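Chapter review: from sequence to fold.
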Amino acid sequence: MKKQVCRSPMLALLAALSCTAFAAEAPQRLDKQGEQAYRLQQPLQDFYDTAFVWSDAGRAEPSLLDMDELARRLAGYDVIFFGESHRHPGIHLQQQRLLRALHARHPAMIVSLEQFERDVQPVLDGYLAGKLGENALVDDGRAWDNYRPSYRPLVQFAKERGLPVIAAEAPTWAISCIGQQGLAVLERFTPEERSWVARELDTGPGAYRDKYMKFQSGAATHGGGAAMSEAAKARAERSFAAQVARDETMAEAIAEALQKKPGAKVLHLNGNFHSAAFLGTAERLQRRLPQLKIAVIDPVEVTDPKLPSFAGAALKEGTVLQLVYPNPESFAPGEDQSAWVRKVMAKRTANACKYAPASAPAAAPKS
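The token string follows.
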């Protein structure tokens, strides 16, 4: 048989593929750097490049897993929290790939989303049932503005396979009420409105409260370490109550979904603060259903994608770490941020609490 020869310059790319054997890329490896850090041998090439590091929250020697092995291990858990850096394309891609791989191993899956709020569950159900189109889902369901590129693939996957999708988050306006007025404002909600926020709300002491208050203290003092004012402390308490309401509501929604469908497994998506170190929503779900086996995937945006590394302390943040390409800085040095601030404030105003503070004077009647 004659050796194949590629002559046409118009077929240069095909010639390279058919006539030349490319050397396989070296497999990614994880090296320990002293006692406190780990580094990948290969760089992260772009936003879609990633590496999953399994350590079972630091109880096992860290090891790299491909998607097939990751899904095989996670299929042994009842609930998988996939923490995300919101809007990171590499994370959203892997969320979809993991759902597909888990479903192949355990068809009775439930998708639970922070990105939809409990009061729009009927809209979400209508879309899944084919009674509503995507425009209604996005508009009436108040989908996040990045729904189509980021979450549509998961919802569509679930729809085509008849899987439940849970709108797990409390309504934004209700969280605003708590953040502005504290938990007492819930007594003014109608019974239906009250059902959209978890029945049990624990704002007591613990590791999650300490973590949140440390974050709030840094924000209030601009990282300077100065003592918080009494007003700032009061705001921090209300802010923590609002955060707890979000976590408890998502935990309650997941627990109720599991009770309605025994034997199912849940893939839940949320911002990683809600599940890192098995705190937040994860610990509150465990409190409701202690028998659950819960896994957490926590993202790590590496500082230098050419030499991707992470601190050993990060291993305790999740069953698995997802190393990803870093997001760009939101602002360049010296850039005017005033327009962005106005946009954020306008959004907050749009989600303002519908209940005026109890001490506020009644508005004068219109003449």
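Two observations follow directly from the output. The chain has a mean pLDDT of 90. Residues 230-260 form the longest helix (31 residues).
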